[in-house]
Amino acid sequence: MRVFARVLNAVSGGRFTPNGVTIFGLAMHAPIAWLIAMQHNLWAAALLVVFGLFDTLDGELARLQNRVSTHGRLLDSVTDRVKEVLLYTGAAYGIIAATGRPYLAVWAVAACGCSLLTSYVNAAGDAIMVGKKTSQHDANKAFRGGLFPFEIRMFILVIGLLSGRITLAVIVIALGAGYTATDRLIRVWSRLKEADAQG
Questions:
Q1: Residue 136 is part of which domain span?
Q2: Taking residues 117-146, what's their average pLDDT?
């Protein structure tokens, strides 16, 4: 992606901005969600891999063009959440169409909810710790990671699409994201207790 970012920047004369790449990557997740809903799983998986790489490309472009900013980080975080809403909505429709069992779509809803909760706990923890006078750098790294961050959730979704087991994939994502959200909440709670004890 670093090499591709350099080539893209050189060819375009710097006209491709990191935020533009982020928005384009988001826009392409709408047809991917439609492909999932229509059960064109192989095409959906292929495009999800290609446009999933845009999450790295925008960051590389930002560093290359010296445009790393809080606005870019906010846009990147928000668009990742919108991508998940689109993808799990497509998965819910596809599961109903493929199985004829509407109740199984609840797992796609759960996967979406737990994924959003995972990110929310991280953001809320960061904001609270900054309010506690923790450094911005420490706060930004304190609650990330865990068993099922965004990249792992997308990887599991791709595997589910390629194997034709989308229902199983969203079940795994729901459980894994739920565990990750709980783990991050425990870390936030622990750090808050430490900060309160230190005065």
A1: 2-197
A2: 71
Residue written as tokens 């994939």? 169
**Contact between residue 156 and residue 176 where contact means Cβ atoms under 8 Å apart:** yes
Q: Where residue 123 sits, what CATH number does that domain have?
A: 1.20.120.1760
Stretch 135-149: mean pLDDT, rounded? Answer: 65
119: nearest Cα among 62, 53, 74:
74
- Distance in angstroms (rounded) separating the CA atoms of residues 19 and 193: 37
Question: What distance in Å separates the CA atoms of residue 48 and residue 32, rounded to the nearest whole number?
Answer: 7
Q: Global pTM?
A: 0.89
- What single letter denotes the amino acid at residue 125? G
Q: What is the helix, strand, coil percentage profile of the chain, to 5?
A: 85, 0, 15
Query: Residue 143: pLDDT above 70?
Result: no
- Which residues touch 196 (CB under 8 Å, ≥6 apart)? none
Give all strands (DSSP E) within the chain, no chain letters. Answer: none
Q: Which of 191, 85, 196, 111 is nearest to 144 (CA)?
A: 191
CA separation for the pair 180, 185 (Å, rounded): 8
Main-chain dihedrals φ then ψ at residue 164, nearest 5 degrees = 75, 20
User: Alpha-carbon distance 19 to 44, whole Å?
Assistant: 24
| DSSP per-residue letters across 157-169 | HHHHHHHT-HHHH
What's the total number of domains in the chain? 1
The pair of three-digit structure tokens given for residue 36, joined into one six-digit string: 């999932």
